[in-house]
Amino acid sequence: MIVVAPSADVSDKAVIGDGSKIWHLAQVREDAELGANCIVGRGAYIGTGVKMGDNCKVQNYALVYEPAVLGAGVFIGPAVVLTNDTYPRAVAPDGSLKSAHDWEPVGVTIKDGASIGARAVCIAPVTIGRWATIAAGAVVTKEVPDFALMAGVPAKRLGWVGKAGFPLTQDGDTWVCPKTGDKYVEHNETLREVEA
């Protein structure tokens, strides 16, 4: 069952997966595709043609501009902005108002399980890797590897996180999740899971 608050504005051309909930004052535009069990919080904006996997959460007042692509289980915190214009201008060099046809939108891609903290801004085009965590207030301007913990303006990698979201601790050549005990190996500034 899909739940849509009476004050939400959901296009008839949007595809909403079973079990999804769209709360007060949220807007979901034409051709957006939300997977099953997604949550779109109060006042959030989901742009035209945005694609979201199953089990995503977009918190209150987040702005997910097209052509963003969110994998399964992505968390978008309150007031996060995913941009889509590399060189934004309201007017052309001659002073005339620009229209939607005067620029080519570029998107932010967020891979499965990644989390973007409150008020963070992701500057398109950029890809956030699987299970990465972007700290609140960060500004992401470059590609983010899987499992990276990013913070700051511009965002820099401070460490690694596991699937549970906890910072990993180093134990010799491996990184360990203090919550689950899962192990990871770092190689050339990337992290991968150790096969059980």
The CATH superfamily title of the largest domain: Hexapeptide repeat proteins
- Give, in order, the helices and strands: EEEEEEEEEEEEEEEEEEEEEEEEEE
Indicate the radius of gyration in whole angstroms: 18 Å
- Overall structural domain count: 2
Low-confidence stretches: none
CATH architecture of the largest domain: 3 Solenoid
Overall outline: globular
| CATH level 3 topology of the largest domain | UDP N-Acetylglucosamine Acyltransferase, domain 1
* Strand proportion: 25-35%
Number of helices: 0
Alpha-beta classification: mainly beta
By CATH reckoning, the class of the largest domain would read: Mainly Beta
Number of strands: 26
Structure description:
There is one protein chain. This protein is mostly beta strands. The chain folds into two domains: 3-161, Hexapeptide repeat proteins (UDP N-Acetylglucosamine Acyltransferase, domain 1), CATH 2.160.10; 162-196. 0% of the residues lie in helices and 34% in strands. The protein contains no helices and 26 strands. Strands 1-4-7-10-13-16-19-21-22 form a nine-stranded mixed sheet, with no helix packed on it. A seven-stranded parallel sheet has the order 2-5-8-11-14-17-20, with no helix packed on it. A six-stranded parallel sheet has the order 3-6-9-12-15-18, with no helix packed on it. Strand 21 (148-151) and strand 22 form a beta hairpin. It is globular, with a radius of gyration of 18 Å. The model has no long low-confidence stretch (mean pLDDT 96). This is N-acetyltransferase. It comes from Arthrobacter cavernae. InterPro entries: Hexapep, Trans_hexapeptide_repeat, Trimer_LpxA-like_sf. Pfam families: Hexapep, Hexapep_2.
